[in-house]
Amino acid sequence: MSTLFGARWRPVWSGVGLLVAYYAFPVGWGDSAAGVVLSLLLTAAGLGLLGYTMIKELDHLRHGEEGRSTRALSMLLVALVMAFSLAFFILNLVEPDQIAGLSTRTDALYFTLSTMATVGYGDVHAEGQLARGLVSGLIVFNVVVVASLVRAHTIKRHGTY
User: Fold this and answer.
1) Are 48 and 111 a contacting pair, CB within 8 Å?
2) Is residue 38 in some structural domain?
3) Following DSSP, what letter does each residue of 87-131 receive, concatenated?
4) Distances in Å between the alpha carbon of 22 and those of 115, 134, 158?
5) Spatial contact of 13 and 5, defined as CB atoms under 8 Å apart
6) CA 13/CA 94 separation, integer angstroms
7) What is the mean pLDDT of residues 34-54?
8) Is residue 109 assigned to a domain?
């Protein structure tokens, strides 16, 4: 049973923890406008911190310094997905017309994953300008930072990609 909580399982448990936090995060806070705005600001701050961490990791890898393990990068990617999903969900609470078809946290998670995978099914899609701006930021971040991290990490570990 102790191996179930060893280093190999940390990404799994981190993912579970992030999912629990994602679904439990208080977005209403009494349904006051100030509470929702504060929640949105905290989510944006979390996204910023996560993005900064990933950019610093990319910088370390580009300079030939020792990078984080694949498990750590996986946990950062899962955290990024959860943070963007929460941002889309909160945006939908504040401005319901921004994202068509989004009404639950699971919808927001689905929308984030389909955007990051560039699948874009169309059943949930950005309609408002604020939502399109946030989606555009996610796409650029995904293409530039996430793809660069994966490529740099692969080259560092295997000498080529």
Assistant:
1) no
2) no
3) HHHHHHHH-TTSEET--SHHHHHHHHHHHHTT---SSSEE-SHHH
4) 18, 18, 34
5) yes
6) 31
7) 66
8) yes
- Within a domain: 29: no
129 CB burial (10 A radius; 0-12, 13-18, 19+): exposed
**81-107 b/e (C-beta count within 10 Å ≥ 16 → b):** bbbbbbbbbbbbeeeeebbeebeebeb
Say how far apart CA 51 and CA 145 lie, in whole Å: 8
Residue 28 falls inside a structural domain: no
Q: What is the mean pLDDT of residues 81-103?
A: 91
Count of domains for the chain: 1
pLDDT at residue 161 in the model: 46
Look at the chain and count its residues.
Answer: 161
